[in-house]
Design a protein that fits this description.
Elements: E1 8-17, E2 20-30, E3 35-40, H1 46-54, E4 60-68, E5 71-72, H2 78-83, E6 86-89, E7 96-100, H3 101-115, H4 123-137, E8 147-148, H5 154-168, E9 172-176, H6 184-199, E10 203-207, H7 211-217, E11 221-226, E12 229-234, H8 236-245, H9 247-255
Parallel strand pairs: 3-10, 3-11, 6-9, 9-10
Antiparallel strand pairs: 1-2, 1-4, 4-5, 7-8, 11-12
Helix pairs in contact: 4-5, 5-6, 8-9
């Protein structure tokens, strides 16, 4: 792989969920440090793309390829994809009863550090950085000692996803409606964190319909997904047109 090659390369990806083909053929390139916004009507396959790339067992890739740097993503189990530098924030982050938040994140962080050839982070150093990250994201420190997402509000769950993102510092992050349930301060925290990590080389695929946040993120590319395929590629003006006219009219305009 040459230095000029995109960080993420997806070619003709087809994904089935149960008996239904959700993604028919998706191809895209995402360079290091780039930000791609993915838009589409409900059921168009946006979340399916993220789940399939992350290796969720309910999302079966039946054709195509996906590479992250030199790694063949589709040939790796889910945990190895994370170790290779892939991060996925869930649209609805689940509870993990009985597992403390700080232990969960530190275990994930040290697994990633091991894959990068780094020494594991001890409990003291981790807790210091986790507390600092939580403060920046408006997440109470007490959440670090509680079971993962148990009793968290919607906004707190999303902030907890952002905390994981900030500490893991992945090569590629897929954020699935990270703004959902967030207040104004939460959206600001998303934008600031994304900008900081992009400056360090992290690439992003952001699924969102929230135009104000999309404009603040300043994406390099905006994609519209329709019926399992990328129907349009554009810039911020494509997002503005979709916000103004809706997906049905955007599709009709593209066909015309």
């Amino acid at each position: 792989m040459t230095s000029s090659s995109p960080l993420l390369q997806v070619r003709d990806l087809r994904v089935d969920v149960g008996e239904r083909t959700v993604l028919r053929s998706v191809s895209l390139d995402v360079p290091a440090g780039a930000l791609v916004v993915l838009m589409g009507a409900n059921g168009s396959g946006k979340s399916t793309l993220g789940m399939a790339l992350a290796g969720h067992p309910n999302y079966q890739v039946t054709a195509g390829s996906a590479r992250l740097g030199d790694a063949d993503l589709l040939g790796l189990p889910a945990h190895e994809r994370a170790r290779a530098g892939l991060f996925l924030s869930f649209q609805s982050p689940p509870d993990v009863p009985g597992v403390k938040n700080n232990l969960f994140i530190r275990t994930a962080l040290n697994a990633v550090r091991e894959a990068r050839g780094l020494e594991p982070q001890d409990a003291f150093d981790f807790l210091s950085s986790a507390k600092q990250g939580a403060k920046q994201l408006g997440l109470p420190e007490a959440m670090l000692g509680r079971p993962v997402n148990e009793g968290f509000s919607g906004g707190e769950r999303k902030r907890n996803e952002l905390l994981q993102l900030s500490l893991l510092q992945p090569r590629l992050a897929l954020l699935d409606e990270i703004d959902s349930g967030m207040d104004v301060d939460g959206v600001r925290a998303v934008v600031e964190l994304v900008q900081r990590l992009r400056a360090q080389g992290t690439a992003f695929i952001v699924i969102s319909h929230y135009l104000q946040m999309i404009e603040q993120l300043q994406p390099d590319t905006v994609l519209r997904l329709d019926q399992g395929c990328i129907a349009e590629t554009g810039d911020i003006e494509l997002a503005r047109r979709i916000a103004r006219t809706g997906f049905a009219r955007a599709a009709a305009t593209a066909e015309a």
